[in-house]
Design brief:
The complex is a heterodimer of chains A (355) and B (386).
Chain A (H helix, E strand, L loop, with lengths): L13 E5 L4 H12 L3 E8 L12 H14 L2 E6 L1 H17 L6 H20 L4 E3 L4 E5 L5 E5 L16 H5 L1 E2 L7 H10 L21 H7 L7 E4 L5 E5 L23 E6 L4 E5 L5 E12 L6 E6 L7 E6 L2 E9 L6 E6 L2 E8 L3
Parallel strand pairs in A: 1-2, 1-4, 2-3, 4-7, 8-11
Antiparallel strand pairs in A: 5-6, 6-17, 8-9, 10-11, 12-15, 12-17, 13-14, 13-16, 14-15, 16-17
Helix pairs in contact in A: 1-2, 1-6, 3-4
Chain B lengths: L4 E2 L10 H12 L10 H21 L6 E4 L2 H16 L2 E5 L4 H9 L3 E3 L9 H13 L4 E5 L13 H11 L3 E5 L9 H4 L5 E5 L10 E5 L25 H39 L3 E3 L15 E6 L4 H10 L2 E2 L15 H5 L4 H4 L2 E5 L6 H20 L2
Parallel strand pairs in B: 1-11, 3-4, 3-5, 5-6, 6-7
Antiparallel strand pairs in B: 2-8, 7-8, 9-10, 10-12
Helix pairs in contact in B: 1-8, 2-8, 3-4, 5-6, 8-12, 9-12
Classes of the chains: A alpha/beta (355), B alpha/beta (386).
């Protein structure tokens, strides 16, 4: 199998470059221009509320506009706030209400960046959409596309892009996939970009570090105090909001000190009960998935499976919609994305169901 | 077809040659401060006085009743905060006001009355809101209704509104006349109102200059404190060149308004009729089945296209050389959903496909030709891919 990075030596394309105002998309835009493509920068306005990672603050739009001006390309701002609310924020709240652990970045990619923006780029006559994600686009010998892990393992973002299908991959450009974050920053400094030293965005863009999840979710959902019980059903602590508890969580459970470390092994929002147990109580043989999507076609058989953005992949067999772990695996919080790989290429993925 | 057409005059219209000349003359005369005592300062003061008279004349008021500001937004803020600060009580405004009025009114806990489907103030709702304020035991400090709406171009019947308000309160009446200056005789249209806001760059003057004009002496608490310029109502050294240019633009506008309105009205009719003859699903905001547009200023063609989103449409229009806008833009440059269309009862699905084509003094037949070529092509492209 040969893997070539699309973009290099490809014919000149009209590219819509998604520019967040961060260093990655700034450098990605510069690279596409150097490759001879016709690039138009687009910044999405997604969230109008408080934010400190700042995914769509006016200052980030300013940064993107500044970089676009420096690169001599057109820059537009698209307001996709309504789509963001509908497909990312509202489901995020609803998931927490149901005791699930949602991944809003995945849903934003699915519905906004590679949903709405992708459709818009097509309607406007663009050949491709480019982003500054650290992931590679791979063309297989049979002409089909796969998403590959970024060369910089620590910055690899293939996990949050697992939902891309052939049509989306075929119109995608990922200029940064072959490089490291350090190289990106060095390139930005070389180009004298004001975004060169901008910190990496952290966590969920609409949750502030000062307010946290509790404030954001609490303002949109009545939070329910819950009881913490051990494996035998005996109460061992309390939590202020059962909706904010996640499988595997260790802190904030109101447990008496001194005992062995206890982890959340189950959350039942119906009865407002959180069950805790020892690390080995978290281990499962299987993880059932739903809403499974595939890069090309459904796959059954041995796979590598990653259950969080920067988690370590584990070997498993995927069959009948269920991940069968080779070795007992830590329970995956329901709602989390579970991504299936063939070596370093994404096959597809889905959302974890309750065991 | 090649070339470009600028149909975004309601956002900012090119400066009149007379205004550019006035501005250059003021710059060349030196940069004296009009509050100074020496000859050059007195010359600057003279320019200011003459400009003040020109603006006052357009409204049929005294020069002393003109307060120069740094634009329309500042004039609106001064009207709302200034009057409420001086008189106490609560402000009220219509639901289709520009944010420069709406946000100050909301900030002060004011009340908002609605409009009908044509975008005209609903008199019954105005009465209801006045009663609502009275019921709280507060008095109505100021009622603000714009003369012409920035999106729909709809003209508000200020005489009728004044009669209703005067009937039951001593509220000060303010109108944001920013979008009206090019098209309407200000003396007659604002005769029943006390305070009028204008912005130079909407009628051929420069950006960053405006005025709050009073029909008579109204008590105002200043929003900007300092050297006491503008009779203690707005401190800060006046922008002499900009004010001079605004006055020149006002004089030019007053001189050719009648001929401009009839010429532009004909161009707008050709534009809208032309689009509707080749495109389905085009709705003209604030215009009912009769097609009557007599309640709208001549320069505005506000349309909603079924099955489209404005951002995509504007992108393709720009590619075709046509510059226009949709709803109001926010600080980031993104298009915001229109509160004006929502107030008029336009569904969100339709409102997201809005397009404002606004004509001005420099608009030509060729601009309309280009629009009639570019818009249908863009609409077809976008609808074809859906």
């Amino acid at each position: 199998m040969t893997a070539i990075s699309a973009g290099a030596a490809s014919p000149k394309k009209q590219v819509m470059m998604a520019m967040s105002g961060g260093v990655d998309s700034s450098v990605a835009a510069a690279m596409l221009i150097e490759q001879g493509h016709e690039v138009v920068g687009v910044t999405l306005k997604l969230w109008g509320g408080d934010s400190d990672s700042g995914c769509c603050s006016v200052s980030d739009v300013d940064d993107a506009r500044w970089v676009a001006d420096q690169l001599g390309i057109e820059h537009h701002v698209f307001n996709m706030g309504a789509d963001f609310d509908e497909h990312v924020v509202d489901p995020y709240i609803a998931s927490h209400a149901a005791g699930l652990t949602p991944n809003p970045c995945v849903e934003c990619n699915r519905h906004v960046k590679f949903g709405k923006l992708h459709e818009r780029a097509k309607a406007l006559g663009f050949d491709a959409v480019a982003t500054g994600h650290h992931a590679r686009l791979v063309t297989r010998e049979d002409g089909t596309f796969r998403l590959g892990r970024g060369a910089d393992q620590a910055k690899d973002q293939s996990y949050v892009l697992y939902m891309l299908d052939q049509e989306q991959l075929g119109r995608l450009m990922l200029p940064l996939g072959g490089g490291t974050k350090d190289e990106v920053r060095a390139r930005a400094a070389e180009l004298n970009m004001r975004t060169a030293n901008k910190p990496d965005s952290q966590d969920v863009c609409f949750i502030t570090s000062t307010g946290g999840r509790q404030k954001f979710i609490g303002a949109r959902l009545p939070l329910t105090p819950g009881t913490v019980v051990d494996g035998s059903g005996e109460q061992v602590g309390t939590v202020t909001a059962v909706e904010l508890v996640t499988i595997g969580q260790r802190r904030g459970l109101g447990l008496a000190g001194g005992s062995d470390p206890q982890f959340v092994t189950n959350v039942d929002t119906q009865t407002a009960t959180v069950t805790v147990g020892r690390p080995e109580d978290l281990l499962v043989e299987t993880t059932p998935l739903h809403q499974v999507v595939w890069a090309h076609e459904p796959v059954e058989g041995p796979v590598l499976v990653q259950t969080s953005a920067h988690g370590v992949p584990a070997a498993a067999t995927f069959a009948g919609g269920v991940v069968h772990w080779d070795e007992p695996h830590r329970k995956v919080a329901p709602g989390q994305s579970v991504v299936l790989y063939d070596n370093d290429q994404v096959l597809g993925g889905g959302l974890a169901l309750r065991n | 077809m090649t070339g470009t057409a600028y149909l975004d005059h309601a956002a900012s219209t090119p400066m009149r040659p007379e205004a550019v000349e006035a501005m250059e003359a003021a710059f060349r005369a030196g940069a004296a401060n009009p509050t100074g005592a020496h000859k050059l300062a007195r010359e600057a003061r003279k320019v200011l006085d003459r400009s003040r008279t020109t603006i006052a004349d357009a409204f049929g008021t005294d020069p002393g009743n003109v307060v120069f500001t740094g634009g329309g937004t500042e004039a609106d803020n001064l009207a709302i905060f200034g009057v409420v600060g001086a008189r106490g009580g609560l402000p009220a405004c219509s639901s289709i006001e520009h944010h420069a009025v709406l946000h100050p009114v909301q900030h002060l806990g004011g009340h908002v009355f609605g409009v009908d489907a044509r975008g005209v103030v609903d008199i019954a709702d105005l009465n209801r809101v006045l009663g609502e304020i009275e019921a709280t035991g507060e008095k109505v400090a100021v009622v603000s209704v714009m003369l012409a709406n920035n999106e729909s171009g709809v003209i508000q019947p200020l005489d009728d509104i004044a009669a209703v308000v005067r009937e039951r309160s001593d509220a000060v009446l303010h109108t944001d006349a920013v979008q009206a200056v090019t098209w309407l005789d200000l003396k007659t249209h604002t005769a029943a109102f006390d305070l009028m806001s204008i912005s130079a760059h909407k009628f051929g003057g420069p950006q960053g200059v405006g005025a709050l004009v009073m029909r008579s002496d109204i008590d105002l608490v200043p929003v900007i404190l300092g050297g006491g310029q503008e009779r203690e109502r707005r401190s800060g050294t006046q922008n002499v060149a900009g004010i001079s240019a605004m006055a020149a633009a006002m004089a030019a506008t007053e001189a050719d308004r009648a001929s401009l309105v009839s010429r532009i009205d004909a161009l707008r009719t050709r534009l809208i009729d032309g689009l509707r003859s080749v495109l389905d699903g085009v709705h003209e905001s604030g215009v009912d089945a009769s097609g009557d547009r007599s309640h709208k200023v001549a320069g505005t063609a506000h349309l909603c296209f079924e099955g489209l989103d404005s951002e995509s449409l504007l992108f393709l229009l720009e590619r075709g050389g046509l510059y226009a806008s949709a709803a109001s833009s926010c600080a980031s440059g993104a298009q915001e959903p229109s509160h004006v269309l929502a107030a008029m009862g336009v569904s969100r699905d339709l409102a997201v496909g809005s397009l404002r084509l606004s004509l001005g003094a420099t608009t030509t037949d060729a601009d309309i030709d280009l629009a009639l070529s570019v818009i249908p092509a863009a609409v077809d492209q976008l609808r074809g891919t859906r």
